[in-house]
Recover the amino acids of this structure.
């Protein structure tokens, strides 16, 4: 699985570098500044990852799969992305949650997503999990976000990775 995960990470970086400003912050009529819209970012990232992975990648990329009623994964979880072999619990590669940089002002949302990632590692035996934060590449990733993710990652023996996608045209990078 390590080799498949490494290939996925290369494709994630390539996909992120192909995204333009529109998908990071959406212009809104009647507002001076554009706004972060997580769904807009995620849909474009999904498109770019699928293109980068090609048809020969041995896993499927799915977005927002609702796991309520799943016989193994408890609760009503719906991660932003999963990379897996549908119907097989022994071939779960990576689960991803995405948040804009503005999550620094609402850490409750960040913690909820990290709990989801932890449950997919613990219950569904995902090989890795990614907390992907995007936007505002003008400054450093806030320590508050780094610290919270680092604490969850320790609980999961380092299997949750912190990835920051600073801005358009840049590769997301593991922090």
């Amino acid at each position: 699985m390590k080799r498949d995960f490494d290939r996925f990470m290369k494709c994630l970086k390539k996909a992120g570098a192909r995204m333009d400003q529109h998908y990071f912050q959406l212009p809104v009529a009647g507002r001076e500044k554009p706004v972060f819209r997580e769904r807009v970012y995620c849909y474009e990232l999904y498109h770019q990852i699928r293109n980068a992975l090609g048809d020969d990648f041995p896993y499927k990329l799915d977005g927002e799969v609702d796991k309520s009623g799943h016989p193994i994964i408890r609760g009503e979880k719906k991660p932003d992305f999963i990379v897996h072999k549908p119907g097989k619990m022994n071939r779960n590669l990576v689960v991803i949650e995405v948040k804009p940089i503005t999550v620094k002002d609402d850490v409750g949302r960040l913690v909820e997503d990290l709990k989801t990632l932890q449950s997919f590692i613990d219950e569904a035996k995902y090989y890795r999990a990614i907390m992907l934060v995007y936007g505002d590449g003008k400054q450093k990733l806030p320590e508050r976000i780094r610290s919270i993710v680092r604490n969850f990652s320790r609980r999961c023996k380092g299997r949750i990775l912190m990835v920051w996608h600073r801005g358009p045209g840049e590769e997301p990078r593991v922090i």
The chain has a mean pLDDT of 89. The chain has one domain: 2-174. Residues 2-174 form one domain.
